[in-house]
Amino acid sequence: xxxxxxxxxxxxxxxxxxxxxxxxxxxxxxxxxxxxxxxxxxxxxxxxxxxxxxxxxxxxxxxxxxxxxxxxxxxxxxxxxxxxxxxxxxxxxxxxxxxxxxxxxxxxxxxxxxxxxxxxxxxxxxxxxxxxxxxxxxxxxxxxxxxxxxxxxxxxxxxxxxxxxxxxxxxxxxxxxxxxxxxxxxxxxxxxxxxxxxxxxxxxxxxxxxxxxxxxxxxxxxxxxxxxxxxxxxxxxxxxxxxxxxxxxxxxxxxxxxxxxxxxxxxxxxxxxxxxxxxxxxxxxxxxxxxxxxxxxxxxxxxxxxxxxxxxxxxxxxxxxxxxxxxxxxxxxxxxxxxxxxxxxxxxxxxxxxxxxxxxxxxxxxxxx
Amino acid sequence: xxxxxxxxxxxxxxxxxxxxxxxxxxxxxxxxxxxxxxxxxxxxxxxxxxxxxxxxxxxxxxxxxxxxxxxxxxxxxxxxxxxxxxxxxxxxxxxxxxxxxxxxxxxxxxxxxxxxxxxxxxxxxxxxxxxxxxxxxxxxxxxxxxxxxxxxxxxxxxxxxxxxxxxxxxxxxxxxxxxxxxxxxxxxxxxxxxxxxxxxxxxxxxxxxxxxxxxxxxxxxxxxxxxxxxxxxxxxxxxxxxxxxxxxxxxxxxxxxxxxxxxxxxxxxxxxxxxxxxxxxxxxxxxxxxxxxxxxxxxxxxxxxxxxxxxxxxxxxxxxxxxxxxxxxxxxxxxxxxxxxxxxxxxxxxxxxxxxxxx
Lengths: 369, 359
What we know:
heterodimer; A: alpha/beta; 7-stranded parallel β-sheet; 5-stranded parallel β-sheet; 12 strands; globular; B: alpha/beta; Rossmann fold; 28% helix; NAD (chain B)
């Protein structure tokens, strides 16, 4: 009889050039998996993405057992009868949640949650410090070849560092944990918020993929934990004297417009202690018009937004020019190590799969992430 | 006979507004110390007799015109980390008066400046800021231009001068997932020597010296270059300026650091301008020996308007602000309080300047 497991077929449909070294590494490690890679054109539009997918050769899906993609799924689940694992190159799974593979099948979907912590945390820290240290002013001075004023009356001499200040992490997942880790090193007090209570040491642990040397695997960083998807619990958390709030929850039905006027007021003790807010998750988590109001009336001290509602942010949005607001075009999660780490998760999951063990980062359709 | 410590006369000479709250707290805590505050700016005119009884001086850059005016002066506490500004004064050159510095308070805000400028470079923040000013959502599709951004995980931070500032940069560097290696003047070859015995802002620093994965030392060129050759991605210069460290880093050192320009390396200076041979740095930046730099200190200061450093795309220049902050004054006084306490008890003080080594 023949020996060895049946051949698996991994199809990679990703919007970047084939990472040959990584693929060869995988081929070496998993002799029973055939690996095909096709680069697809990136598009932000759902329609264009479907169009791009339709261009793929007929029958490409026939033997596929594992799919590694960002947004390219077989139009009809029946086209891919052997598909049993979809690994997404993103942390979120919103882009596939309306697709029949999500809504009508049980195909396991995993995400690349866990790869983003380091670079996104860096973006968070950078944009917070750029504001608190008045970097934009310093940059302008440099362009003018001006050695600043002396004597200390100007803005950038009144810098307040982070020691003793409080970081609130709304969504203590892998990204939140890395921001927490760095904030703690800077001397901050960190408080965490999660959907469900983490009231045992076990629950505080991060069971997902962690980039070595980063994160908070034991959940030791926060001095206090809060939880609850209802408004009361949320507002209770926001009232904890937070100086800097990171928004790092997934976008789900429950978290849409999670933060609006009432929440901004709670966060800044009714405007008495304006807080700084950072969003690296999804634009619609924040009620954007209300955010703009809160920034203009100084309920909030400032904001750093890598995600907006919608994206691209329209040219005439007031957010572009508000003082103390930094807007970047959804780049915080992008980095040269991304691909390598995302493949690493897939690799680890393939090993676990072979051993019949639980996979990392399985999307739980019931909760939406 | 009368109880309690001998009366001390403390003269505080600082620029800026009188720190009334801090002073009244000090007076409460040390009732045996008579405290006089005088403003040091713009041009202080301090009557000679104000100096006569002074036993302790707390100052930044204002000193008595002559030693003979202050025969009872026994301690000078500087509000700065460095002591260069006093080193040509008779207090330094011709007396044994104890001089102490405020080393230990600068770590947090300077480390933040270091992290900020390093990330501004690696994440190409200037480009992002330009996009924002133009209301532009990136060049092409989101993210496509920034795929080459490399985060700090697994990269090596070299701290040239593992003092209180260096330790805080190291602490944050480690949290970012970096490997940190330390350099000191003299070998720290025991657990005890690796400790930071000075003032540490709570929640920061590296009291035990556990952050670095390796330690290097030595003021001679060979030792320095040996350290620089350790595949460093990001070098922070945080040594004091002394005759040994003047022009510590010149072309040969930049070449060692970057393996002749084959390794992109980012150099930061938050110590003193003359530690870097500035013309050599400029040449190294232009010919690619050094990939980028962030300088909060230059040689001289102010940096002349026509210096090439201003316009180099991969260079950040800021006007010696990295230590400035609202917490500065409070922390400096907190440290000073520790010293007043110790003085009263006859204990050794924090941050005593050792004249023979220059810091």
